TrEMBL record:
Entries under Pfam families matching the protein: dCMP_cyt_deam_1
Taxonomic lineage of the native organism: Bacteria, Bacillati, Bacillota, Clostridia, Peptostreptococcales
A molecular-function term among this protein's GO annotations: catalytic activity
Organism name: Paramaledivibacter caminithermalis (strain DSM 15212 / CIP 107654 / DViRD3) (Clostridium caminithermale)
CMP/dCMP-type deaminase domain segment(s): 8-101
Name listed for the protein in its UniProt record: Cytidine deaminase
């Protein structure tokens, strides 16, 4: 459990560091994905003229993990409204939850809390009634074996 907290704190630190570097003024957001082999992948969202084709902040980091064929263990998204605002954790949207399930239901994700504390839960805890429960695990495509 202690190692988990170290990973989570490091992810938060890396997200804040990237936000401050990439977005010195105004809004800022960054995501960090941690992999089973100890790597950290970071990303920001792509802004386009047509907001309907924007991608979530976490997508780039997930794609990097997928590119290197490593299992994701944690995902965190942090934003701030402007350079004078506090940082806050955003729970992954439903689409990103679906993307993260590729690595199994034990992936831990940072979630939004009332008191803005850093908290992670598994995808299984976040969505205990997920639609995949209607199918046998062997019918679903996952990274490696299903947890």
């Amino acid at each position: 459990m202690k190692q988990e907290k170290i990973i989570e704190q490091e992810m938060y630190h890396r997200a804040i560091e990237l936000i401050q570097k990439r977005y010195p003024k105004g809004w800022g957001g960054a995501a960090v994905v941690h992999s089973e082999d100890g790597q950290y992948f970071t990303s920001v969202s792509i802004k386009t003229a047509n907001s309907s084709v924007d991608l979530c902040i976490e997508v780039g980091a997930m794609c990097e993990a997928h590119k290197y064929n490593v299992r994701v263990t944690h995902c965190l998204c942090v934003v701030r409204d402007d350079e004078n605002s506090p940082f806050k954790v955003l729970t992954p949207c439903g689409v990103c939850q679906e993307r993260l399930r590729f690595w199994g239901t034990s992936v831990k994700v940072g979630v939004t809390t009332q008191d803005n504390t850093l908290k992670f839960v598994t995808l299984n805890e976040l969505q205990p009634y997920h639609w995949t429960n209607a199918y046998p695990p062997e019918e679903l495509e996952y990274f490696g074996k299903r947890d």
